[in-house]
Design goal:
alpha/beta, Rossmann fold, 7 helices, 5 strands, 11% strand, globular
């Protein structure tokens, strides 16, 4: 089962679900990604849901800040309705031993307390969650982690051209950059190495800059 099913609540995290679908389609191909609104057509949604899950080894539950307390027109919490489609999708996935359920937290949301979930989806609180950052640079790293989870759960193989890993920058490269900066400064000014000001300007400042750049590259890798 190499497919991935994306379940979400439309008034909570629809933009995130669509973004996630587009990203995963690029990585795994359209035939391996199922969005609930795309997969469920007219007819018995329960039968269609089971059919879709038969092709999926992973179900992503996209959860925004309004996920837990989303209300219907009467003001009742939607999760309390046993016929709620989103709840049924989660319950069906959790009941299947051959499906890995991954909560995907967006908009800075957190996992809901176990005691606030209905009995049939209470096990959702026990699943390892992943987050998607708002900033695109951080989100790319989050997507890489999620893609690896999906690969392990489904056996699908991500496109090698997708999510290129950042190359590690070697210390010789940084040393070469430091030497070049010294040369450029030497050409531009008359240097008196006996003066402490020039030592600070030519040695300590470039070294500090290089140290900061190396630290930033390491924290992003």
């Amino acid at each position: 089962m190499s497919g991935t099913f994306i379940s979400y609540r439309e008034d909570d995290a629809k933009p995130w679900a669509l973004l996630l679908r587009d990203e995963l389609v690029e990585v795994f191909g359209e035939q391996h990604v199922f969005l609930d609104k795309d997969a469920l057509q007219a007819g018995s949604w329960r039968e269609q849901l089971h059919h879709a899950l038969d092709q999926c080894g992973a179900v992503l539950v996209v959860m925004g800040k309004r996920w837990l307390d989303a209300r219907d027109r009467e003001g009742a919490r939607r999760l309390e309705n046993p016929e709620d489609v989103h709840r049924q999708e989660i319950a069906t996935a959790l009941a299947r031993k051959d499906v890995t359920v991954i909560p995907v937290l967006v908009d800075g949301s957190t996992m809901p307390p176990r005691e606030q979930l209905p009995d049939d989806i209470r096990a959702l609180a026990d699943q390892q969650a992943r987050s998607l950052a708002d900033r695109s640079t951080h989100r790319e790293l989050d997507l890489e982690v999620l893609v690896r989870d999906i690969e392990r759960a489904t056996g699908a193989v991500a496109s090698p051209r997708s999510f290129p890993r950042r190359k590690n920058v070697s210390w010789p490269s940084w040393l070469a950059s430091l030497v070049l900066s010294f040369i450029s400064i030497y050409i531009g000014v008359e240097i008196d190495y006996r003066h402490w000001t020039w030592f600070v300007f030519l040695v300590l400042v470039p070294a500090a800059v290089v140290a900061v750049l190396v630290w930033r590259m390491r924290t992003k890798s």
